Amino acid sequence: MQVSFCTWIRWSGSGSYWRAMAMFHTIDGMKKLSFKRLLSRKKRLIIAATGIVLLVLATVVSLRLFKNREVPTIPPTPAYSQLTGTRVASDIAERPILGVMIENHPAARPQTGLDAAGIVFETVTEGGITRYLALYQENLPEELGPIRSVRSQYVNWVMGFDASITHVGGSADALELLSSRGAKSLSQFTYPEPYHRVGSREAPHNMYVSTKALQELQRKLGHKTAQFEEIPRTADTPSPSPEAGKVTINFSGADYLAEFHYQKDRNVYTRYLAGSPDIDAATNKPVTVKNLVVITMPSNTIQAIGSGSALVFKDGNVQTVTWKQSSYKTRIILTDAQGNQVGLNRGDTWFAVLPSSGSVDYTAR
Question: Quick one: CATH architecture of 87-363?
Answer without folding.
Answer: 3-Layer(bba) Sandwich (3.50)
